[in-house]
Amino acid sequence: MNSDRKLRWGILGSASIAVRSVIPGLQQSELNEVTAIASRDEEKAKQTADQLGIPQAYGSYEALLADDSIDAVYIPLPNHLHREWTLRAAEAGKHILCEKPLALTEQEAQEMVQACEDAGVHLAEALMYRHHPRYDQIRDIIASGEIGEVRGIHSTFSFNSSGSTGNVRFRRDWGGGALYDIGCYSISAARLLLGQEPSAATVIGMFSPEHGHVDMMASGLLEFDNHIGVTFDSSMWAAFRNTLEVLGSDGIIEVPSAYISNPDRSSNFFVIVDGERKEIEVPQVNHYSLQGDDMARAVLQGKALRFAPSDAVANMKVLEACLRSAEERTRITL
């Protein structure tokens, strides 16, 4: 295959995450190019295309999927539309990068994975943070035994968007709420670092009548093997933070900005052993670019995706259990 060939992307929608982060990341990557964008509002598609230097704008998602020159699509649509447009993109023969969470339920996620397997296309969930090399560094430190045996993990992700109006995250029927929007990061990170699945979930949620009765705050405990508890909180109605702490028997790993990474700023983290706090240098990279290049290598070079779509199904299983636990105020066994 031509080594100069780049993966040609179409974008289904002009959501903020696409315009602000994912499209620029693809454009700055090694192996990708964004060739088209679609919106149900054709004028909006044209404006976004002009703004970002995208050659083609379409006034419908169907028109973009019918474009044979497009290899892959990115789906940043509201959560309840992920299943429909993943299935339609797979039917059109497009490889798919779908925003997190992949679906609304484990069953939906499995259906999406199966449809992509049947169509012979790749499917990846857009949890970009996992592609940053610092997570490999963190895993290596854990595996080395430097901090001893892992005793627990604590993860936070919160911001205050409670005053916004018309926010799709406040639509319960659209898969809104803090757990689905940002709790997925904490759950995914715990599973990634521990290399295993939790056996139970207990979550308390603050469901707000002012915000469509979605969980505006959720605090949880995930139970893993070896008596490891993972605690996390996710909120759309609290002060901003996004942190990760791995507590070991002999030391601690602290990640001050666990899920947000700016290639122009330090993403360094810290290891504390015997009272000595050591800063671990991290390459300054764009994890959105790395996420795109991972898909491109799978499509163009036949390499395996770093994270199989089955991982998204497993994460969805835990997310669904967490939401059920919060709604029923009970411990859910997985």
TrEMBL record:
Matches recorded under Gene3D superfamilies: Dihydrodipicolinate Reductase, domain 2, NAD(P)-binding Rossmann-like Domain
One Pfam match: GFO_IDH_MocA
Keyword Protein transport part of the UniProt annotation: no
Keywords linked to the UniProt accession: Oxidoreductase
This protein's record includes keyword Oxidoreductase: yes
Domain GFO/IDH/MocA-like oxidoreductase positions: 135-254
GO function term, MF aspect, one: nucleotide binding
Residues in Gfo/Idh/MocA-like oxidoreductase N-terminal domain copies: 7-123
Top-level taxon of the source organism: Bacteria
PANTHER family: OXIDOREDUCTASES, TRANS-1,2-DIHYDROBENZENE-1,2-DIOL DEHYDROGENASE
Family, similarity comment: Belongs to the Gfo/Idh/MocA family.
Protein name, as recorded: Oxidoreductase
Species of provenance: Paenibacillus xylanivorans
